[in-house]
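Table S2 (continued). Query chain:
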Amino acid sequence: MYGTVTMSSYETAADFGTLYDAVPAYAARADVAFYVAEATRVARESRATVLELGCGTGRVLLPLARAGHDVTGIDASAAMLARCRAKLAREPASVRDRVALYEGDVRAFTLPRSPARSVGTADEGPGFTLSIAPFRILQHLVTPADQIRCLAGVRQHLTPGGRFVFDVFNPHFLLMAQDRSVEVEDTPERLLPDGRYIRRTTRVPRMRWVEQVSDVELIYYVRTGTAVERVVQAFAMRWYGPAELEHLLARAGLHLEGVYGNFDRSSLRDESPEIVVVAARAP
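Corresponding output:
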């Protein structure tokens, strides 16, 4: 028998950041090198000022800071940010001083322009040279109103000519139309640093075709000795096509510069796993 915890965000399990970081597929994603390269591409005087939406436990944020860039991260999850702060505390001062973390909603935010400035400082800075939304953050924004609010906030925080780079999955409708309501294991049981064990399964109990939304569950089985807790992270994921993304960006005052099908900058094709978008605020 399992004790089950169901959550619609990352907040129910206080140490959810530990569970998240234990999934090998996340650590193996090729997006980190891509986003670091994008920061280097827009860097001025060897460093970029980067705003990361949904920074989580620092999977992308910390490599950006280690590469010499100033990074401001925002996330709605106190649990994920606590994990990120714990990691950041183990970094040298040269990295810590480049990072600022804020708890907040990506649909409505006002942030200072660099880690050196505090909240409440008059907004006289030039803006961020780069904003990023890695690992499908925009797919958690289900309604057009929320999408436009987020994109308008990004534009407001960018310097003229600043880039906005993000990724979403490329929808494969034949796969999405299959019944995926039964749990499928994607992470076999593995040992956590604190002596517990976790394994993870996934399922999609419902497709909302008209809304372009998949209801998704990520199910973590956390074992301590013979006791097992079942932690269910349930959330909605909105899918997009490239033409829709271009229209959304235009409505928010951002213009499309490039679209890729993966983090190797390959062309977007029907079979591509990702839609990777580079947009910019007008100079």
